[in-house]
Task: inverse folding
């Protein structure tokens, strides 16, 4: 019976893997086809007449170096701010038994449920009032605020799996709460922190709403904005250029995920192992 269950789970996993690989397959093969060939045979392997011409044209028209630098800078600042404050907030919510902190936990949890488009108008007015409208710092702070609730929720759940005895032993040895957090708790956070960094950075990298609304896209051309410009009206989009640009947007994220894959997996199972 256990063998049948194991085989069934393996078949389900293989099926899901194939299902999730299909979009990646279509993106890769169509990046090397002409527009007419994509429309005619979207599932077939590409010929040898187009090659990397689509990607080279996309590199030039997207000004990919500038787009990469802009998006990476915004994502790096936003994720670092969110991770730093979320770790401290999650630690406080998990360790301090007080009605105010229990209430704040539900407030942060509600932040995950808020639809992002509903926050756009308030964000625009707040950034303008603070003098941060159409600025690099303004959009970075906006992203940090949006991704923090989920990070706090994950950190809080992770900290609750860590035995209090570890910190109590440090307190007996003369450690302050801050020193105990840095020397005892912080090293245990590496897997879950790596997971959050990957997930949150991918969200910022792929987002198009904030760069389109909060800043002038000419001043801060993110990869999403650069790719969005390839969409034409009334079906006049050049699909070969669009697929080539999509490959350029995907490559950094794919490299990042493959590089930190082992940390990502450890972060996903950290709570289960500690529990």
Result:
């Amino acid at each position: 019976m256990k063998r049948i269950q194991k085989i069934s789970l393996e078949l389900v996993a293989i099926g899901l893997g194939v299902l999730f690989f299909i979009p990646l397959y279509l993106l890769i093969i169509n990046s090397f086809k002409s527009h007419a060939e994509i429309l005619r045979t979207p599932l077939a392997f590409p010929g040898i007449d187009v090659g990397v011409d689509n990607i080279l044209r996309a590199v030039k028209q997207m000004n990919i170096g500038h787009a990469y630098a802009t998006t990476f800078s915004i994502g790096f600042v936003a994720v670092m701010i969110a991770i730093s404050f979320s770790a401290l907030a999650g630690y406080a919510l998990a360790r301090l038994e007080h009605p105010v902190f229990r209430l704040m936990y539900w407030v942060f949890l509600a932040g995950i449920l808020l639809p992002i488009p509903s926050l756009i108008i308030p964000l625009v007015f707040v950034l303008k009032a603070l003098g941060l409208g159409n600025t690099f710092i303004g959009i970075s702070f906006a992203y940090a605020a949006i991704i923090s609730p989920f990070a706090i929720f994950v950190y809080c759940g992770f900290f609750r799996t860590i035995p209090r005895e570890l910190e109590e032993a440090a307190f007996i040895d003369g450690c302050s709460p801050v020193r105990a957090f840095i020397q005892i708790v912080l090293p245990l956070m590496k897997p879950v922190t790596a997971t959050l960094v990957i997930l949150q950075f991918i969200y910022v990298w792929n987002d198009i709403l904030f760069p389109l609304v909060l800043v002038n896209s000419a001043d801060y051309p993110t990869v999403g904005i650069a790719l969005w410009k390839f969409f034409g009206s009334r079906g006049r989009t050049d699909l070969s250029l669009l697929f080539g640009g999509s490959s350029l947007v995907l490559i950094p994220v794919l490299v990042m995920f493959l590089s930190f894959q082992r940390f990502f997996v450890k972060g996903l199972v950290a709570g289960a192992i500690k529990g």
User: Anything to note?
Assistant: The chain is about 75% helix and 0% strand. The domain at 2-274 is CATH 1.10.3720.10 (MetI-like fold). The chain has one domain: 2-274. The two ends are 28 Å apart (CA to CA).
